[in-house]
Amino acid sequence: MKRIIFRADDLGYSEGVNLGIAKTVKKGLVRTVGLIVNLDRSKEGFELIGEEDLCLGLHVNISYGKPVSEPSALPSLLKENGDFKASGEYNNALIGFVSYDEVYREIEAQYQRFQEITGREPDYIEGHAIVNETYFRAIEAIAHAYRLQYIPTLLSHEDCFVMNNHRLYFWMESMQAVSARFSS
């Protein structure tokens, strides 16, 4: 038997996203949610769904907003104003400009912020909007260090990921242009 699991990522992104995800969770349409923890609306988003019985993951974000870590420790990830570089800068870079140590530091800080906001461990960890090998390696390393389930970014809807003896296939319309670029 095949089942479809809908995952709502980006909880914490904005008031509208928070309200939309909360509505789908409360109606029972979505039982898996990815929480971004470095944004102003992160805690508010969690409070809307925190009492629900669901699978809640850390949706690591290094492409929007301010970091959780001390900005001076993350020069390769930030613009001059202290905000993260946009996902397009990571995805379109011809060379790897991202420091592994900086990415690891920020992901670890986001993991700790997740615990502060939710009072629990994430059910899984995965990344937001970036296709970058250094980013992927750092997320996987944090997952290993803290014994978290890592859900890799799959660039093709034909690729699968095995979890609890089930093959999982992902489809995300917004990543198809990036996928085409990296598969050619």
Report the end-to-end length measured between terminal Cα atoms.
34 Å
Major sheet: arrangement of strands: 1-2-3-4
What would you report as the Rg, rounded to the nearest angstrom?
16 Å
Profile the largest sheet: 4 strands, parallel
Average pLDDT, rounded to a whole number, is 86
The tally of helices reads 6
Classify the beta-strand content into a percent band.
Answer: 5-15%
Low-confidence parts: 174-184
Helix-residue proportion:
25-40%
Structural shape:
globular
Total beta strands: 6
Series of secondary-structure elements, N-terminal to C-terminal: EHEHEHHEHEEH
Please state the structural category: alpha/beta
What does the model show?
This protein has 184 residues and is α/β, with parallel strands linked by helices. 35% of the residues lie in helices and 14% in strands. It has six helices and six strands, in the order βαβαβααβαββα. It has helices at residues 15-26, 42-49, 87-91, 100-118, 133-145, 176-183, and strands at 7-11, 32-35, 55-60, 125-127, 160-163, 166-169. A hairpin with a 2-residue loop joins strand 5 and strand 6 (166-169). The radius of gyration is 16 Å and the shape is globular. The N and C termini lie far apart (34 Å). The relative contact order is 0.13.
List the helices and strands and how they pair.
Layout: E1 7-11, H1 15-26, E2 32-35, H2 42-49, E3 55-60, H3 87-91, H4 100-118, E4 125-127, H5 133-145, E5 160-163, E6 166-169, H6 176-183
Parallel strand pairs: 1-2, 2-3, 3-4
Antiparallel strand pairs: 5-6
Helix pairs in contact: 1-2, 4-5
